[in-house]
Write a structure and sequence with these properties.
The protein has 249 residues and is α/β, with parallel strands linked by helices.
């Protein structure tokens, strides 16, 4: 299994903090978002290496960071050639870029670099291995469907964790379960990435790709994350996460 961390975005909603550095280098509780995430990933059973996909503009900063990084799993940096928000490849575009550039022929654990969560990833990977051939996604329960309205992709699951319905940012959600940025793609599913991006109307957000895979008839399973979870998408979320992780109220 290879881990792919997507870190090529430009985080314009967090300007001016991210005008000159990647969002995953912002700190929460005294550690960068990337460091928090890598601590979750580095000791996963069966992990071959960790591939971090960034953009060309911030690539030198990642190389400097890598010189100081101390993790047990091998790290590799690649950049997608983009220099601005206007020419970015997007999440699924970067996934395809990584698959092709590294000639990946193994299971893939894909993670968004701006997610902050308590959940141990070992349980998610074990769950995924118990669903051979199925794509697995992480979900989080907001407890109230209204909190997801117009903001998140919403899923419904059966008792075995099989996804039975998906909606992208619905105004009237049928569930309080939302998709978060951790995905497991078995090797056989990687060929769908290029097929999806060649499809008319393909969008770069992972939720759109997962929904397309679901509508193809593929099996999708959801694993519910427990504890705290933050999507560091704006200044408010960053401030709240820092308040919680530093013991504030």
């Amino acid at each position: 299994m290879k881990a792919i961390i997507l870190a090529a975005g430009y985080a314009t909603r967090l300007y001016p903090l991210t005008e000159n550095k990647p969002k995953c280098f912002l700190e929460v509780g005294g550690r960068t978002l990337l460091d928090h995430l890598l601590k979750k990933v580095e000791n996963l059973p069966g992990l071959e290496d960790i591939l971090i996909v960034t953009n060309a503009r911030f690539y030198p900063q990642f190389l400097e960071w890598q010189k100081r990084a101390r993790f047990s799993a091998p790290l590799k940096m690649i950049h997608d050639g983009s220099y601005s928000n206007e020419d970015r490849l997007g999440a699924i575009g970067d996934l395809r870029f990584a698959i092709l550039k590294e000639k990946i022929q193994s299971d893939v654990l894909m993670l968004a670099s701006d997610n902050l969560f308590d959940q141990d990833l070992k349980a998610f990977v074990e769950f995924s291995h118990q669903k051979p051939g199925g794509v697995c996604v992480s979900v989080y329960d907001l407890q109230d469907p209204k909190l997801a309205a117009g903001k998140f992709g919403v899923l419904t699951l059966d008792p075995d964790g099989r996804v039975t319905g998906m909606e992208e940012k619905p105004q009237r959600p049928k569930s309080s379960l939302i998709g978060v940025g951790v995905y497991f793609f078995p090797e056989r599913s990687l060929e769908w990435v290029g097929e999806y991006l060649n499809h008319p109307g393909a969008q770069d957000a992972p939720g759109h790709f997962i929904r397309w895979v679901y509508e193809k008839g593929a099996q999708i399973f959801g694993f519910q994350f427990k504890g705290m979870w933050y999507d560091i998408g704006d200044l408010k979320a960053l401030e709240e996460a820092n308040r919680i992780f530093t013991g504030g109220v």
